[in-house]
Amino acid sequence: MKFKSVFDIIGPVMIGPSSSHTAGAARIGRVARDLFGSQPSWAKIHLYGSFAETYKGHSTDVAIVGGLLDYDTFDERIKTSFDEAEKLGMKFEFIPETGNVDHPNTARVVIGDDESEMSMVGISIGGGKIEITELNGFPLRLSGNHPAILVVHDDRSGCIANVANCLYKYDINIGHMEVSRKERGDMALMVIEVDQNVGKPVMDELRELPNITQVTRIAD
Predict the structure, then answer these.
(1) Is 166 exposed, middle or buried (0-12, 13-18, 19+ CB in 10 A)?
(2) 84-133, pLDDT tens digit by residue?
(3) What is the DSSP letter of 20?
C-alpha cells in the first residue's frame, strides 16, 4: 500500500483518543454542516457498529457535535462542544442502532432548522479519513478530503454537459465525478470532486443553468 504522506501513517492532528472514532467523527459532522450550508438548530445522530458500542468512551459524540459546530479535528473546543452547542441553542440526540451496516464506523446524521432538513450517512475508514455514502436518499461516494460540488438537478439531457462546460470555462479540473438519480426523469445528483476550491462566481453561474435546483460546495 502506498501512502501520499507521513500523515497517512501516523494520522491527523486531532483532539481525542482515536483517529477513527474521534477525528473521523469530527469530519463527518463538519461535512454534514458544509452540505447543509448553515448552522443546524437540531441534530439526530444514529450510530451503528462500533460507533454505537463505544461512542462515549472514544468521544465520538463530542467530536460529531464539534464538527456540526464547524470545528476542525485539532480544535480544542471539541472537548467542550456539548456546552458550546447548548450556548447556540442547538439540540442534539444520539441514537445507538443495532442494524447491520457495511462498515462498523457508520453514522447517519439528520440535521435541520425551521426551514429545511438533511440526512447524510458517513463512515470513518481509519486514520481520520471518511467517506460519505448517502445524501438525502442518494447513494454516493464522497471522500470529504477534496473540494467538491454537489449539484441537484432534474434528470434531463444536457445537464451534465452544461455543468462540465461551466467548470471548463473557469479552468477547474474534475478529479472524480458520480451521477445518480432516484428514477428516470426525476431528481438527480452530481457529485464532483475538483482540484481547487470553487469561488462564488462559478457557483452563481452553475445555479443559473437550466434544470439546476441546488448547488452546494465543500471547501478544502
Answers:
(1) middle
(2) 999 999 999 999 999 888 888 999 999 999 999 999 999 998 878 889 99
(3) I
C-alpha grid cell, residue 213: 435546483
Q: What is the pTM of this model?
A: 0.80
Tens-digit pLDDT profile for residues 167-191: 999 999 999 998 988 888 888 999 9
Within the chain, residue ranges assigned H as helices are 7-10, 24-36, 49-54, 60-68, 81-88, 159-169, 200-207
Distances (CA, A) of 195 to 55, 60, 162, 215: 34, 30, 19, 18
Environment class of 77 (CB within 10 Å of its CB; exposed 0-12, middle 13-18, buried 19+): middle
Q: How many CB atoms lie within 10 A of CB 177?
A: 16
The Cα 86–Cα 88 span in angstroms is: 5
Residues 6+ apart with CB under 8 A from 86: none
Unique residue bearing C-alpha cell 447556540: 88
Sign for the CA dihedral angle at 10, 194, 152, 66 comes to: positive
CB atoms within 10 A of CB 2: 4
**Distance between CA atoms of 122 and 140, rounded to whole angstroms?**
10
- pLDDT recorded at residue 20: 59
Do 28 and 37 touch, CB atoms closer than 8 A?
A: no
> Which residues are registered as beta bridge partners of 112?
42, 117
From CA 220, how far away is CA 218, in angstroms rounded?
A: 7
